[in-house]
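Lecture notes, unit on protein representations.

Consider one protein chain, 82 amino acids long.
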Amino acid sequence: MRLLEFLDQEDYATAYYDPALDTVSRREPNQTRKPRLFLRHLNRLKRIRAINKLERLKREDLLGVLYAVPEPEGMGGGPPGF
């Protein structure tokens, strides 16, 4: 399952969880085949979220280097010494 299936887009972006709005772990008596969330599932989701955050930070750093405003090195565009 994906993390986005558990949280709304707003909640995923702000990392806010409201137990009152949680419909995943709430079970009705007629829901006998609904899977339960165990700690191993929650820990896996936590690791996935941490990995996604790390990848996003790396991507932002790379884009910052790629699209940074170049520093002026001098007049002209030729190699140094000319």
